[in-house]
Amino acid sequence: MARTAPGPPQVPGYAEARSRGLLPRVATRPPEPLPGTPAGTLMARWTVVTIGGFAAFVILGVVAGKAGVTAAAAWLAITAGGSGFLVTLWWLLGRVGDRFVAELGAGYTTLVLDEGTFWMASLRPWRNGAIRVRWDCSGTWVCDRRSGLPVATPDLTVLPPGSYPSPHRADRWELWSGRMWTGNFRSPPTAA
User: Are the CB atoms for 141 and 129 separated by under 8 Å?
Assistant: First the structure.
């Protein structure tokens, strides 16, 4: 059974954070893109690395089979290489998530998700009743990952995704996906 929690406006500390200007804000004009690689581009790169890595494993398996590699050597290579590959993928996905959160903090995103997660903390089904986090980015600017120009304007009636006072830990802020709490906790901001 899913554990329900109030939305950000019902959480203690929300009103004070709002009055201090600490909550995610959405500008009436498109924000300037942050320096660095956009989240949408990082996600595209992650996808290419994932597909390329799995293709390489298949090719290496076929080559090893034709070369007469022993089963023990093949399993050792698969275990070591596969483990390293999966750890690298998880690390790269965390970088995508960190950039995604940074963009949300700046009032826009270059990566629109329906479902997905970037961090282990969000993979707690007892937190939100789902394995994947459901996202709603309609409350923030959506910008093209290449040009930085807006492709969708925010619905100002929708609370934007971002960090808000947490209903689960009074001393922390938690990432709100626009639909649910993610289990990704951060220190509270000190100033706007």
Answer: no
Q: Which H/E stretch holds residue 184? A: strand 181-186
Summarised one tens digit per residue, pLDDT across range 22-77 is 998 888 999 999 999 999 999 999 999 999 988 988 888 788 778 888 888 878 88
For residues 170 and 35, what is the distance between their CA atoms, to the nearest angstrom?
32
**What span, in angstroms and rounded, lies between the C-alpha atoms of 103 and 72?**
46
Residues 92 and 42: their CA atoms lie apart, in Å, by: 8
Q: Which residue has the tokens 């320096």?
A: 35
The residues near 150 (Cβ < 8 Å, ≥ 6 apart) are: 30, 108, 141, 142, 143, 144
Q: What does pTM read for this prediction? A: 0.82
pLDDT at 126 > cutoff 50? no
